Every structure is written in C-alpha cells, then in structure tokens.
Amino acid sequence: MHLIKSHDAGGVERYHGPIDRTEHNFQLWEKRTDAIFCICASKGLMNVDQLRRGIEALPEHSYGNFSYYGKWAASMLSMLQENGHITRGDVEEALGTEATDEEVKFKVGDRVRVREESEGGLRWKRPHLRVPGYIFGCVGTIERVCGVFTNPEAHAFPVSKLDPPGVHPTSHLKQPLYRVRFLMQHVWHHGYNGNENDTCDVEIYQNWLDKTATGLDAPQGARRDLQEKLHTENNHGSDDEITGKKRKAEHFQHDHNNQGHEHAPRTDVEQVAVDKEGEDTASHRLSEALLRIVVKKGIITPEELVAMVTSIDSFGADAEGARLVVKAWTDPKFRDLLLSDARKACIALGIAASNNTASTVLTAVENTETVHNVVVCTLCSCYPRNILGMAPDWYKSRSYRSRVIINPREVLREFGTEFDPGSNVEVRVNDSTADLRYMVVPMQPSGTRGWPEEDLRQLVTRDSLIGVTRAHSPDPALFTKFGSVRLPNAAKAFIFDCDGTLVDSNRLHLNAYKEVFAKYGLAFDARRVAELFGASSREILATISKEQGKDVDVEAMSLMKKDVYESTLPSVKRIESTFKVVEAAFAAKIPMAVVSGCRNVGKTLAAAGLERYFKVMLGQEDYENSKPAPDGYLKAARLLGVDPGACVGFEDAPFGFQALKAAQYLMTINVMHMDGYVQS
Prior knowledge:
- Helix 23 (about 535-545) crosses helix 24 (about 555-565).
- It is elongated, with a radius of gyration of 36 Å.
- It is of the alpha/beta class.
- The protein has 28 helices and 16 strands.
- The strands form five sheets. Strands 4-3-2-1-5 form a five-stranded antiparallel sheet. A five-stranded parallel sheet has the order 14-13-12-15-16, with helices on both faces.
- The longest helix is centred in the middle third of the chain and has 16 residues, at about 280-295.
C-alpha cells in the first residue's frame, strides 16, 4: 500500500475535517520569512523545489504543529545548511536549543520527569533522539550521575562545508548524563504483569529532565498497551493544519494524583502546548533565528529585506486577477487569448504572470453553463500570488487540500456554491502540483453586460478566481433590471447617446461622409472616421482634412454631410437591446435625455419612433464643446434637474465614454456589451 507522507494531502481521510475559513492578517515575521526565501531564491542560494523537499522531510509532529511559515523557516534552515551557506553551529547558536550545560543539576535520589518529545527543543528537522519513546512523560528517580558527555543528538549531524576542518561544530556541546530508575508498572501500567517492585534503568541526558515534587510517585507511562491505539490515532485522526490562527485542539485530562492515565498522541499533546502559547512561538522562533543568521552572515541585508516585504505586500493590490477577468468578459478576442496563452494576455495588460519565487506558467480555466472549475494544490500550496495576492489560510490547509480533490461538491457547498438539482454541470478540479498556476475565469453575472469595467471588477472576488464561489451577483435590493441590464436604484435619470446607442445609424453616417469626401477630394477611411464618432461633424471633417493636408470649406462640407444623412433617415431603425431599457425606464417614470454630436437629433429620434420617450434632446448646436468634453452631458442633467452623480449614461463610442467620465456620472453603460446588441 502506498505510504502517504504528511504533505501529500489529496483524498487522505485522516485530514478530513471542517475548513477554517477565518481570514488571517499576516504578521511581520511571516512576511519576513517569505521575503527571506524570495531573496535567497533570487540569489541562487536555494530554489522552490528544495524548499518543498525540506518541508516534506519534517517529522510528522513538526509538519502538523508548525504554522505555514514555520515550515518554510524550518526548511530554509535545513536547505541553506545542506547547500553550504550556513552551518549547524550557526543554527544552534541562533536557536539556543543545544547550548553547553555542563553543570550537574540533579543528585542521586532526586525525583525527575522526562519531558515529552515536543518539549525537547525545536524539531526543525528529523531529530536523532537518544530518549526511548516509551519513557516520555514518565516520573522516576536519579539512580546515578554518569558524567558529562558530548550531546549525541547534536553530534549526529554532518559537518557543513563552512565548518572548520578536523573539528565537529557541535563537539563542544555537552550535557550531564544520568541513570534514572522507573517502576515498571508505572511505565507500562496496564500492560505490565510482573512484580510491583520491578524497575528499569534508563540513561537520559539532563536537557530531557525536569525536577518534580518529592514523593510524587504516580504511574506516568501506560505505554505498552496503548502503543497500537496511539499509533492508530496519530495516523488516522483528523489533522487540521495550523496556518497562523491556531486550531482548536481536543484537550486530554492528565491526572497526576496516584491515578494512571492514557497519554494523548504526541502530536495532540504538542498541539495543546502550542495552543496555550497563544503566539505561534515555535514557528516564530525558527523564523527569528533564520533572520538573525542570514543577516549576520551577510546573506541578506536589512535593506533587501524591507524592499522584498514591501513587494510582497503589493501582491494582488491592483486586482490583477479581476482586471484579466473583466477584460475577458468585455472583449471576446482577449478572452480567447487569456484561455490559450495567459502569459501573453498578461503582457497585453502590463501584468507580471509568473510568481517571483520560480518561473511558473499562469493558466486560465473558464467556468461555463456546463463546467465549473476549482483549483487546489494537494501537495503544498501552489498559487498564482502575483495575480491573486497571498493565498488564504484555508487554501493551504490539509483539510481543503485533502477534501476538495475527493469531495469537491461537498466543499463547494460549504463555500455557498451549489448547482441546480438535475443540472449536468461537470465539476473539474485543477490540481496545481508542478509548474502551472491556475486562475478561474468565473461566469459573468446575469444583468451586468454593459457595466463599466470598474464596476464589473467589484464583482470578481479572490474566491471566485480560485473557483470555490461564483462572481458576485448585484444585490437585488440595490439594483433594478431594465431590459437586460441591472442598474443602481440610486440612479435618478438615464441619459443616452443617439447614433449607435439608440438608433442603428452609424452606417448611414459613414455613407454620408464617404459621399462628401469624394466630392471634396479626400481619401475615405471608414475606420478612421468611426474613431472620431461622438465629436461634431465639423470637428471630424476638420481633423481629417488637416491630417490629409487639404484646405477645404469645413462648414460647407458639414452642411452637405447633414443633408445627405437626413435624406436616408426613412431607413433608420432603433437598436432593440437599448430600446428595452428605454421602454422599462419610461414605464418606471425615470426622466431621460439624449446627447448627440449631430445636428437636429430630434429628426433622427422621430424617424426611429423614439422622440416621445425623452424630455431633453440635445444636438451639437445645443452645447458649446462637443464630446469628449462633458458639456452636453452636464447640460442634460441640469435640464432634467438631476445631479450628474445620480445619472446613468449610455454610450457606444470612446469620445462618449470620456465625456461621461468627465461629467462624473454614477455609471456608464457600454451598450455594445449589452445582451442582444446588434448594429448593421
């Protein structure tokens, strides 16, 4: 049977348990730990694969009890030592875990307690212990003081490349050694069948002993008959990971008043001890020791550390993930690029796609009516933090990592994501175990097509980019649906552009310009003319004639263009997707206006049967500066008696969007993105 290691959480039942979704504000020492690795990686001192290997090599109780960044610090202490950049002596000096203590503190006859394994120093790597496991927590009597010896637990580790030759760096670390006598029935309790006076003598170093009250003779072991039981509990009990905020551990009663008791599994005893500390002192101490070492040895300067912490704080600050998603919602070509090559899509928006710790490949997966994606890393916590910011604690927890790969629908329900009964939606779990970093492109909420990008970005959350939730839908209490779009109840007036927004007339305008250009000897470029839509016809004609170096009568050209266009008005049609909004707003008695860059806008609206819906209709002759200046939109709001900040503007052209932004309207709707928008 495959042996599952501590880090390999996917589908492992013993890690199943509630997912703690409490948000954790990263402490400074955690940011510094992250920064130390980023700097070391950038200098080639270690890499992300070595960081993972160091974490995977942690003893089970350390992996389970260290916080997320505690594991990072422990791994870096090991890997930097292995790579020859620091020594074990550096580590022991910084931690103070195995300092020389040659003073003999106990005498024959003293009652002593053997510390639990978790009390014997910080287990930042797999230890070499000379204390047998059955004796942890037991009380005995000093039978003999054996002398002072080199501590074998430190001496067992190899010499670093940086240590001076010929001398082991820990040979000076000495500890007194004692023989301690224990009553067998107290060691094994229920499992010992011999005489009540039978004893065992065990050699134990001083750093593993605490003095206890004279006369305390309670049975402390109860080990042998529980070994199998405790082994089972250690390997199959629920094991929620500590990630900054301590989990709630089960407390086990310890009765030391002449009553035998069953010791809890070591990992649980350690967890209770950590919980009682409040601050994650074990992990914090490791990080502080690491920091002291790398600064003292000149591996990292304080200035480098401050700069990297500042950089880490900026991850996700610009909502890069939301920018990518909204651009994909509003630009079909960009959507295709994002899904096929997210790196190129990021470059197009000036976003760094790869994580700063390794060369990773951002991969976007799209949620649709038939497929719902969710992301996990079952082996560690791979995550596109440059895009989404720092990973939440629950994403890194063994509960999430073990459960979402085997029971994704159950986990999604805990996050509030459910599917209609009988729906045929495929749930697809993306396990980020190597060099890809995933982000989900959630479905755009109904009724938000045409919304401005800044408002759409508010709907895209970190959790929706991981796939455990959908993008936010507008609060029904705050929005009302008009046609296919939801608009804020705070809006008191709707103000529309005319051509390309209310009426399908842009083709007629282009044909009119083409005829005028031919008469006056100008080259006609439909794309260039369309780029200037929103400005007055005079400004469009003046701009293009100047670009082509032609000295023409702009006023005469403008009048000719007006006459040609108006001759085609009988064929003009309304744009149905926008008309549905107009019709609903009219029924709701919301005042509306039109602001056009063309003259005699009333004629166009009348030809399309729309004139009766609007209280105010402004053409280019009715306000001073044409779009992109805000004059027309500000005047329309004033004539309606509504503050611009309570108006919603509807546009289809860049100059119009700029004018609405300058007018500081409550919201701008791009009608081309509304459901059902069609223009010939």
